Fold this sequence. Notes:
This protein is of the alpha/beta class. Helix content is 40%, strand content 18%. It is built from 16 helices and 14 strands. It has helices at residues 8-11, 29-41, 47-54, 58-71, 135-152, 192-200, 209-220, 280-284, 286-298, 303-312, 317-325, 329-353, 369-382, 385-388, 402-415, 418-424; strands at 74-79, 89-93, 98-105, 109-116, 121-128, 159-167, 171-172, 177-178, 204-208, 228-234, 238-244, 247-248, 357-361, 392-395. A five-stranded mixed β-sheet has the order 5-4-3-6-9, with helices on both faces. Strands 12-11-10-13-14 form a five-stranded mixed β-sheet. It has a two-stranded antiparallel ribbon with strand order 1-2. Helix 9 packs antiparallel against helix 12 and helix 12 crosses helix 13. The two termini are 34 Å apart.
Amino acid sequence: MAKQGKTPNEAFGGDARSGPGISSLPRQLGSLVTILDEVRSGTSRTRPELIASTGLSRAVVAQRSAELCASGLVEEAELGASTGGRAPRILRFRSESGYLLAAELGATSITVALTDLSAGIVDIHEEPSDISAGPHVILERVKALFDELLERHRDRPGQLWGVGIGLPGPVEFSSGRAVAPPIMLGWDQFPVREAFASRYGAPVWVDNDVNVLALGEVRAGVGRGHDLVVFVKLGTGIGAGIVVNGHILRGAQGCAGDVGHIRVTDDPTAVCRCGKIGCLEELAGGRALGRRGEAAAREGASRILGEVLAAKGSIDAEDVAHASHQGDPVALELITDAGSLVGGVLASLVNFVNPSLIVIGGGVARAGDGLLATIRQTLYARSLPLATRDLLVQRSALDGTGGVIGVASMVADELFAPHTLNAWLDAGHPGVLSRLDRVESRA
């Protein structure tokens, strides 16, 4: 663990510079970042491929790739396949030259990870938690878990380059603060970024958990290769993240995709935790499924749920999902009702943004094929034929890692965005960004 009074970047190793010559790089950042992004993503692996994919001249590609190699961010690896002449040298992003800390905070869990600069997981830990315990309790626990990760990997080469946090509520990305989050009592405007930046001596970015789940799916899950992906998290609450051409669509203030608070009924008794009437989340989220399942058990309408209630004293969404797997008609009806409501809202989203893929994730998404089938059926029935002609609706396959992969990917994207790279280029290490009052986003 880092010594008291020192950041991990001071305690874990020597000079702050990540590689020789990085501070002397010229300022042609546009083409430099274009090439870096191509190499980082693996889209282009050789200089001829870079020329073809970017439209940059041979001279510019040669110069910028040489600069990136001098910086230590890129290196020349083995020879690639020849296309008739001399075999080109493969360019490889040096993801091991630094590492990132990532945390995804859910309503009922914390997941933390140490990753390389390509969001490859080095170590990961998940544990139950309760976001309503408040920011001081939860964030102190995150810091303790981060410190444990750093301690376990204290001999790992490189330095800490950035920290990312995903929160289960609306986040103003520019400030890194949650704004009036419905399920996060005490978190409104809490300075999450500042809580980590001074401790770890590295820049910090904070985003909504569904946004980072969407990005994780695009970078490492079923969303790879799709230009417009919508990730829908069905958990305690309901939210959606939208990724367009590899980048999160956050909207003007950072709350794009908050489908859980779209109104689906005028019933005045359906009061959502946000204070509004008839929200999708209030009728189809995990909390709603548990509440309706418990009511059915108390009324004696479901034998299976009644037995669960007698055994544990309460019913949650997982109990309803388990009962539906056993063929319980009440549980199946609850799952079907939720799927129909979600599918109806997603149909409007499909007609509006025309995605090529919708990914369904979150705890409630594990309710089984019946839920997914109902969402698909309702969505296709209510969407325009052209919008659904090539549309895929799939379940997430990342099984709990998507959030931290997305958080780390978000941090890496911000570190290597033109304006951010420009801010730390002369210093030679992104730790200087932790001292800035505000770190702008490329989004």
